């Protein structure tokens, strides 16, 4: 597996923490594992938060892309990393932690036992998109087309949230026979969409926003329960006519391997909360159809436990068989 590494260099002061004895953390570079390939929407998030985190702690942050298995490969790598605070996981915890419990028969990690929750970062939506050249201007038009095409209709996705969103769309719209293609990254399905091999994609809003700005795709509907301020013309799935869809709003978070010392996890929590409090971060996220979702270790632990239960319901409603 090819691992992509880039370094963020910054020049702020060291963060000082207090434990059983005075110590400084960090005193060298930190690795932030991204459980999706370089160039994806997930990679964009990790690189932004890794870069801002680097500015605060005054040490380089290297992004280590470990994509594959809907995020499981990178998450497993983080779970097995040395618990010293120098390897962290910045990831969509809602999907690669909470959802994974129900979408896979067996995981190579335990979201609760193998990690220490640090804090939440942001929340965003997923969207249904078509090729910008597609004649379908609304989700209703796409739905009618898919019903007419029947079992020859195809779609692609590369994340657990996309998997569930598409399944809930099919269920709510009364679609049957659609063929799903699962991908490791979003560039390949985008190429297949252009080539006419796929009829639509279920993708994260940040990635879709960039592609839409470039004139490559058209966004038809969002999984959240309200419209995004950055894309007010994009309706929610319910507004677009998908009954009982509800709201599917993934969230990003930071985790450290279990066993990481509390003074270190406290320092990580403090630093990342400074990132989410930044006006620059709020503006950056807003431009991508996302928003800050600040928290803390206790809140994230409770959220993860609740979301594991919620995603079990989503997966069951969507009729998804664990892989």
Write a brief caption for the model:
The protein is of the alpha/beta class.
How would you describe what is shown here?
By secondary structure, the chain is of the alpha/beta class. It has two domains: 5-124 and 250-318, Bordetella uptake gene, domain 1 (D-Maltodextrin-Binding Protein, domain 2); 126-222, D-Maltodextrin-Binding Protein, domain 2, CATH 3.40.190.10. It has ten helices and 14 strands. The protein has helices spanning 41-57, 72-79, 93-103, 139-149, 160-173, 187-194, 205-213, 262-277, 279-287, 297-318, and strands spanning 5-8, 16-18, 22-24, 30-34, 61-65, 87-91, 115-123, 126-131, 154-157, 179-182, 200-204, 217-222, 251-257, 291-292. It has a seven-stranded mixed beta sheet with strand order 1-5-4-6-13-7-14, with helices on both faces. The longest helix has 22 residues, at 297-318. The two termini are 21 Å apart. Residues 1-22 have low confidence and may be disordered.
């Amino acid at each position: 597996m090819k691992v992509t590494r880039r370094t963020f260099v910054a020049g702020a002061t060291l963060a000082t923490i207090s434990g059983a004895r005075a110590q400084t953390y960090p005193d060298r570079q930190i690795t932030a594992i991204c459980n999706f390939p370089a160039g994806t929407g997930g990679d964009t998030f990790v690189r932004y938060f890794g870069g801002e985190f680097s500015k605060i702690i005054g040490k380089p942050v290297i992004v280590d892309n470990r994509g594959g298995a809907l995020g499981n490969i990178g998450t497993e790598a983080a779970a097995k990393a040395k618990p010293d605070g120098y390897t962290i996981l910045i990831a969509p915890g809602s999907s690669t932690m909470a959802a994974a419990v129900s979408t896979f028969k067996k995981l190579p990690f335990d979201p609760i036992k193998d990690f220490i929750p640090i804090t939440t970062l942001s929340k965003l939506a997923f969207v249904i998109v078509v090729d910008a050249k597609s004649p379908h201007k609304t989700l209703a038009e796409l739905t009618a087309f898919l019903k007419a095409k029947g079992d020859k209709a195809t779609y692609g996705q590369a994340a657990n949230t996309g998997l569930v969103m598409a399944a809930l769309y099919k269920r709510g719209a009364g679609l049957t026979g659609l063929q799903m293609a699962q991908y490791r990254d979003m560039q390949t399905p985008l190429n297949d969409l252009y080539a006419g091999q796929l009829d639509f994609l279920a993708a994260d809003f940040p990635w879709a926003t960039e592609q839409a700005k470039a004139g490559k795709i058209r966004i038809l509907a969002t999984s959240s329960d309200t419209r995004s301020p950055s894309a007010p013309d994009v309706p929610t799935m319910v507004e677009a006519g998908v009954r009982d869809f509800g709201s599917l709003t993934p969230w990003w978070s930071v985790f450290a391997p279990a066993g990481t010392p509390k003074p270190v996890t406290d320092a990580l929590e403090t630093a990342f909360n400074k990132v989410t409090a930044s006006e620059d971060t709020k503006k950056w996220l807003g431009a991508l159809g996302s928003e800050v979702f600040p928290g803390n270790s206790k809140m994230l632990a409770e959220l993860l436990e609740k979301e594991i239960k919620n995603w079990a319901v989503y997966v069951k409603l969507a009729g998804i068989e664990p892989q």
